[in-house]
């Protein structure tokens, strides 16, 4: 007599090529968010579009800092200097040399990357708080050096391109709409480059260097090249953000000696509250930071001096509630909901499917 075989529970296996299935849900959600982002400048006023553009260039700089600090583990409080060198490179090329603004963006990235290499080599000998102090000194000294080199209107370190130099190149698009969409395009390019990098062999080397330098070096990773290269790419992203700020704010200004130090802190805050070592976290952090800054600035009428204290308190509360950032908190919440749904499924769906070998047919006499 033949005993029927038991049904076999199977799991989804990778395809023959070894690649994972396409995450259609994430892809669809990303396309929906992109569609909404493209629609925004046609819905809001020019003032709001300017604020949204500021979020975008702040996000680009934060993505660069996240690449260095979140993924590679090198702490920097001097990315405001790379941002500033990009801004002044773009502004000087437009005002003094008559360049089209769009052509200045790659030049600003290259100049900032060159400065990043110069900072990256000394950074090979120090780490942690000592590296943070070195980059802090860079952010503080940058306005003074710029004041010696750049002489704008009135002989001060301030370059202001004319509005006619930053007009829309697309007929039918207002200047604020064009600037927003160009900023959005640059942010998408930076995110795509970061996403591809972190899934490549070079990206794995960056993370391995952060996690354990000795182990990474023992398997053949060139620690010095990884660190300097990451510093250069991170600085290039900040330089692009600086050029974007010239287009949005129509100014490159180094008259205030603490401006770029404040920007460096804002980049770091965006990374922390959004979620370090995540692709989209710095973008979320930049949006939250600008929102908090706008809300706290007008929260206490007639007492603007208290606005920084209110902003600081709000940031401390966010970090306390979400220690791994907004993106990390969302992931933990999603995982908890999924576990709860599986646990409430009872006997029909609580047991995970496990691949097992099929039972052979047995015969008895």
Description:
There is one protein chain. The chain has helices at 24-39, 46-71, 79-97, 101-123, 129-149, 175-198, 201-211, 213-218, 223-249, 259-274, 281-297, 307-321, 325-343, 346-349; strands at 158-159, 252-253. Helix 6 packs antiparallel against helix 9. The longest helix is centred in the middle third of the chain and has 27 residues, at 223-249. The chain is 67% helix and 1% strand. It has 365 residues and is mainly α. It contains 14 helices and 2 strands. Residues 1-18 and 346-365 have low confidence and may be disordered. It has a single domain, classed as ABC transporter involved in vitamin B12 uptake, BtuC (Orthogonal Bundle), CATH 1.10.3470. The chain has a two-stranded antiparallel sheet with strand order 1-2. It starts with 23 loop residues before the first helix and ends in a 16-residue tail after the last helix.
Strand content: under 5%
Count of structural domains: 1
Q: What is the class in the CATH system?
A: Mainly Alpha
Can you write the helix and strand succession as a string?
A: HHHHHEHHHHEHHHHH
Quickly count the helices: 14
Radius of gyration, in Å, reads: 25 Å
What is the topology, as strand order, of the major beta sheet? 1-2
Rough outline = globular
Residues in helix, %: 55-70%
Query: What's the N-to-C terminus distance?
Result: 7 Å
Class from secondary-structure proportions = mainly alpha
Query: Multimeric state of these chains?
Result: single chain
**Number of strand segments:** 2
Low-confidence stretches: 1-18, 346-365
**Secondary-structure arrangement, i.e. CATH architecture:** Orthogonal Bundle
The CATH topology assignment is ABC transporter involved in vitamin B12 uptake, BtuC
What is the residue-averaged pLDDT?
Answer: 85
Specify the biggest β-sheet. Answer: 2 strands, antiparallel
